[in-house]
Design a protein that fits this description.
Helix content is 34%, strand content 23%. It contains four helices and five strands; from the N terminus they run ββββααβαα. The chain starts with a strand and ends in a 30-residue tail after the last helix. By secondary structure, it is of the alpha+beta class. Strand 3 and strand 4 form a beta hairpin. The longest helix is centred in the middle third of the chain and has 19 residues.
């Protein structure tokens, strides 16, 4: 099987995922994912699609991550891995979709408006 490409996004993070047959190695920006994501919760978030399908040792995953924070990157990576697994085998789609791994979370940071300190916050009102 040749390499399968997929993309995952969350907030400002973009994950470009390359899935190929292998032994279960996940490499993020040239480092092991356990080293890249220090928190065990984020490591679990990244491997959720593989755990649901029992495919943890079936594929090697190489990832280019860019932008955003650590949590956004982990969730972008989860979406990218899920999409790549669906491309690899269409039968995975039902199980991944029922767990909510194929849904793109559309929430983004609202832009700052002129004349205000933040997007919606206003300066203190002074009557006199």
């Amino acid at each position: 099987m040749e390499s399968i490409n997929a993309i995952g996004r969350r907030k400002a993070a973009v994950a470009r995922v390359y899935l190929s047959d292998g032994k279960g190695n996940i490499t993020v920006n040239g480092r092991d994912y356990r080293e890249y994501f220090g928190s065990e919760i984020l490591q679990y978030v990244v491997t959720q699609p593989l755990l649901v399908l029992n495919a943890g040792d079936k594929y090697d995953i190489n990832v280019n991550l860019d932008g955003g924070g650590v949590k956004g990157q982990a969730e972008a990576l989860r979406l990218g891995i899920s999409r790549a697994l669906v491309i690899a085998d269409e039968e995975n789609k039902k199980q991944l979709k029922s767990n909510g791994f194929l849904t793109r979370n559309p929430r983004e940071v609202e832009r700052k408006k002129p004349g205000r300190p933040k997007a919606r916050k206003r300066f203190q009102f002074s009557k006199r």
